[in-house]
Design goal:
CATH class of the largest domain: Mainly Alpha
Number of helices: 10
CATH topology of the largest domain: Arc Repressor Mutant, subunit A
Helix content: 25-40%
Largest sheet: 5 strands, antiparallel
CATH architecture of the largest domain: Orthogonal Bundle
Length: about 350
C-alpha cells in the first residue's frame, strides 16, 4: 500500500535520528519526540509506539519504498541503529511517491516566492530542482487546481523585507506614516515585533515606545522607513496567538476587553454560518432552517463592525445595544447618501 506524505516525512526523520553521529542508539521515545517536534510542532505524542514500529517495518521490508533499511535494536546500548554505518535513505534515489510529493511542495513554494522576505526561496527551489532532478516539473502541473490570493500590486509590500530584518535583529525603527483617517502625515517610533497578512493586506504590530502599548500599522500607509542598527531593543513579551485569539482581523490585544456579542442571522446566511464560523468562539443559541441565533466572545472592534456591515440584510445585532446602535447609524448614513439628503 502506498505510503502517505506524512509517512514519507517520518521515514526521513527516523533516518536522521539513526544517522546522527552525535547521538548514537536513539530510543523509541527520542525518535517519537523528534517526529512530533519536526512534523507536528509539539513534543506531545502525536503518533503511537506501535505506529513507529510499523514505520520501522516499512523501512525494512516495504518493497514499494525500496529502502531495505538495516534497522536493528542494540540491547547493550538500549537504542536503535543501522547495521551498516554508511547507510542512509538520503543516499537512495527518490521513489515515485517521494518525487511527486517533493514536486508538489516545490510548486507550492513558488507561489510565495514573490513575497519580498521570501525572495531567497527562488535559490532554494533551484537547488532542490537540481539536487533531485525535478527541473522538468512545471508550475502548470499544479496551478490549474490551486490558486493563492497573492498579488504583486499589494501596496506596502516593498517594506516587508526591511521591517522583517529589523524584527529579526531587534532594531528599533522610525517611519513616516500617512494616517488617512486623521488626514495627517507624521513620524512614528516603534519596536517592531510581528508582520501579519490579512486579506492580501500587510500590517506591522509593534511596541510604541511613547504610548507604551502594542499598536498596529498598515504597511500601505508607510512612506519612508529608517532602521536604527546601532540599537538593539529588549524584546517585550509577545505571544501572537494570545494577542489575536479574541479578535476578528488584526486589531487584537491581550488586555483588550472581550464582550458577548449576540446576533441573529436569517436566510442562506443562517445555514452558512455554522459551517463558516465568524470566530472560533461562535456558539449557537437557537437554530432553525432559516434562522440562527448565536453569540461570539470577541473584542468589539472596528473589524467586527465592518464584518457585520458586510452581511447587512441577513444579520441583526441583538446585544450589546451600543453595537446595535452603531450599525443602525451606519445604515442610516447609507440611506441618506442614496436619498441625496
Amino acid at each position: 500500500m502506498p505510503a502517505n506524505k506524512n509517512a514519507l516525512i517520518r521515514y526521513r526523520i527516523i533516518d536522521r535520528c539513526l544517522t546522527n553521529k552525535l547521538r548514537k542508539y536513539p530510543t523509541k521515545q527520542y525518535i517519537l519526540e523528534k517526529i512530533c517536534q519536526d512534523l507536528y510542532g509539539t513534543v506531545e505524542e502525536a503518533i503511537s509506539v506501535s505506529s513507529l514500529e510499523k514505520d520501522f517495518d516499512a523501512m525494512r521490508n516495504d518493497a514499494s519504498l525500496g529502502y531495505n533499511a538495516p534497522i536493528k535494536y542494540c540491547k547493550r546500548n538500549k537504542g536503535y541503529y543501522y547495521t551498516d554505518p554508511e547507510y542512509s535513505i538520503d543516499g537512495l534515489a527518490l521513489n515515485d511517491q517521494e518525487t511527486e510529493a517533493l514536486q508538489e511542495s516545490v510548486s507550492l513554494l513558488k507561489s510565495f516566492g514573490e513575497i519580498p522576505v521570501l525572495k531567497n526561496l527562488s535559490d532554494a527551489i533551484q537547488k532542490i530542482n537540481t539536487r533531485f532532478s525535478l527541473s522538468e516539473w512545471s508550475e502548470e502541473a499544479i496551478t490549474p487546481y490551486l490558486e493563492f490570493e497573492t498579488s504583486d500590486l499589494v501596496p506596502g509590500r516593498e517594506w516587508i523585507k526591511q521591517i522583517y530584518d529589523a524584527i529579526k535583529n531587534r532594531n528599533p525603527i522610525r517611519f513616516i506614516y500617512n494616517n488617512t483617517y486623521k488626514n495627517e502625515i507624521r513620524e512614528h517610533s516603534l519596536e517592531p515585533h510581528y508582520l501579519k497578512e490579512v486579506k492580501n493586506a500587510w500590517y506591522l504590530l509593534g511596541w510604541n515606545t511613547k504610548r507604551k502599548l502594542f499598536l498596529v500599522y498598515h504597511l500601505d500607509k508607510f512612506q519612508e522607513v529608517f532602521i536604527d542598527e546601532s540599537q538593539i531593543f529588549i524584546r517585550k513579551e509577545f505571544n501572537p496567538v494570545e494577542h489575536f485569539q479574541n479578535a476578528i482581523g488584526i486589531m487584537g490585544g491581550e488586555n483588550a476587553q472581550v464582550e458577548r456579542i449576540v446576533m441573529e442571522a436569517t436566510g442562506p446566511l443562517a445555514r452558512a454560518l455554522p459551517l463558516q464560523l465568524i470566530h472560533p468562539s461562535q456558539k449557537t443559541l437557537e437554530s432553525s432552517e432559516d434562522r440562527l441565533l448565536f453569540e461570539l466572545r470577541v473584542i468589539n472592534n472596528d473589524e467586527l463592525f465592518r464584518k457585520i456591515i458586510s452581511m447587512t440584510g441577513s444579520i441583526k445585532v441583538i446585544e450589546p445595544l451600543s453595537l446595535q446602535k452603531r450599525v443602525l447609524d451606519e445604515l442610516q448614513k447609507a440611506l441618506k447618501a442614496y436619498d441625496g439628503k
